[in-house]
Amino acid sequence: MATKTRFNGGELVRFGLFATIVTALLAAVGLVTTFGERDIIGGVLSVGSIFLFGVAVGAAFLLTRRNSGAPWAIRLVGGTLLGLFTSILPLLIVLLAEPLGLRRFLPNISPDLIAIMTFGQGVAGLPILVLIFAVAGLLGAVLALLSASVRRPLFAGLLVVFVVGLLSETIILSWGNQGLGLAIRRVAFAARGLSPLGALLLFLLVAGINALWNWRSGWVRERIGALPPAPRQGLRWGGIALGILVLLFLPVLLRSYLTEVINNVGLYILMGLGLNIVVGFAGLLDLGYVAFYAIGAYTMGILTSTGRLGLAGLTWWEALPIAVLMAITAGVILGVPVLRMRGDYLAIVTLGFGEIIRILATSDFLAPLTGGPQGVLQIPNVPFFGMSLIKPEHLYYLILAGCLLAFFVSWRLRDSRMGRQWMAMREDEDVAEAMGINLVKTKLLAFATGAAFSGLSGTILAAKLNSVFPHSMSLYVSINVLCLIIIGGMGSLPGVIVGALLLIGLPELLREFAEYRMLMYGVLLILIMLSRPEGFWPSEVAKRELHAREEVAVTGNANTAG
User: Fold this and answer.
1) Are 138 and 169 in a shared domain?
2) How many whole angstroms separate alpha carbon 125 and alpha carbon 128?
């Protein structure tokens, strides 16, 4: 295949048109205005500015990469022109907002938006806007021209600066008002966001560590690989022990609020590990996974509540095996009628099962048992050696124990005979059955195992909230868990953790922007499917399969063209 040596002007127009439309939409839906109040670098860079100019940077980066055969000077000019192209619709918004009364149709095109886009100078600020768009396009082209060894540390440093600046208020509230935290706050943080000096120091630290690791990682791996098996195994277990030690002391570092956020993330990790077995390992698309979550929570509530709905007055530990067993039974009951279903039909049936459980929980028929819309109240806390686990720091260890147990079981099952049967069934049920795999047993075990983890998460939720309400068991819970698996990487155990941190933890930290949560889901899913279809942290099997398919497709196209 011949390498292109000329810059493609048609791609410049297409990318520029896409970039200017997306930028205008981000402004029109209110993202630029809403996030304009959230500074990354105090008085210098806000999240709203990143939404406004970031699309031009990304589009110029992609355009420059696609024209890799053209001379570098031409590609720099192309990136700059794309930035100028991106400014067209934002300029029209500023110029036509008042004459056409755009705010009547698009309420978010407000004076605040115009002030942000013109830097508070009215029409006189438009040349500055155009200039910054051109610089943004040039920056995207420069980043694309850099070698990977230079670009990776830059991206790592910029990403960490963005995350720390975005979460600066939470960090300051958690541990920035006393001792060492106060000293760091005075140097690294401004009134809002990072200070310029703090952002520079953080960027240099992260980029330097990343560059050093990229430079010496091969040498480190060679030295570790040259070790005898016993020291290498000891080094591995030492790393695991260090990780567990960090997890044990995490609440001391995070304080109450951040620990509460981690607890919410942990509940979704627990559910995600269960659904990962059903969807990621076995390939069974389950959209009613929240049903097992609800069954575990309601069973725990009914058996332990001290109110009028309490039946047995058990403690949390006494009711735990019963609640998990009820969830497992529900998983088997769901699995029996869908044994011969696949794909979309399976998704529809499981979706109906989840809705049936939710409707039953709110119905008058079961109201004497479940409390109907009012739910189950007065659920006691988890007792533990004479004390009650009330504070987030206490519940953290219970959730951590559940997540570690689920992670260990999933890890052992993945490499077991049953795990390989699940994966074979995921690839092709007919071939798996022809090889002697019992599909009935294999599917039922997948549903039962996934339901057990979801039911365990529900039991912890009931004790955490001291109540269970049906509106907490909506379809969105199933969608959230499925999304975090897709974004983290189907079939990947670390991917579940990464996906939960991104889709559950980040919106919790940005609670004031919660109305954009579903938009974040959509954008992340689109970006993942385009840039990393295998997920943020894919399993090795999924990565090999995906790249093998891509190589086959490329080879087939080349043969056809030949």
Assistant:
1) no
2) 5
Q: For 365, which DSSP code?
A: T
Residues 468 and 349 occupy one common structural domain:
yes
Angle between helices 250-275 and 229-248 (to 10 degrees): 110
**Between β-strands 45-46 and 382-384, what pairing exists: parallel, antiparallel or unpaired?**
unpaired
439: tokens are 């599909």
Phi, psi for 432 (deg, rounded to 5): -60, -40
What are the structure tokens assigned to 506, written together? 């980040």
Number of domains in the chain: 3
How does pLDDT run across 298-318, given as a tens digit for each residue?
A: 999 999 998 887 787 899 999
Same domain flag for 100 and 172 = no
DSSP character for 501? I
Please name the residue that has the structure tokens 């953290």: 396
Q: What is the mean pLDDT of residues 273-295?
A: 92
10 Å CB burial of residue 252 (0-12, 13-18, 19+) is exposed
Please check whether residues 312 and 451 belong to one and the same domain: yes
- Give the per-residue pLDDT at 372: 86
Q: Which residue has the tokens 């004031």?
A: 512
**Count, residues in the chain:** 562
2 pLDDT tier (thresholds 50, 70, 90): very low
Residue from 298, 284, 354, 307 nearest 326 by CA = 298
Is the separation of the CB atoms in 255 and 174 below 8 Å? Answer: yes
Residue reference for tokens 């000891």? 234
Q: What is the rounded distance in angstroms from the CA atom of residue 187 to the CA atom of residue 514?
A: 30
Binned at pLDDT 50, 70 and 90, residue 179 comes out as: low
| Domain that residue 125 falls in | 1-145
% pLDDT > 90, the chain: 38
Q: Are residues 203 and 274 located together in one domain of the fold?
A: no
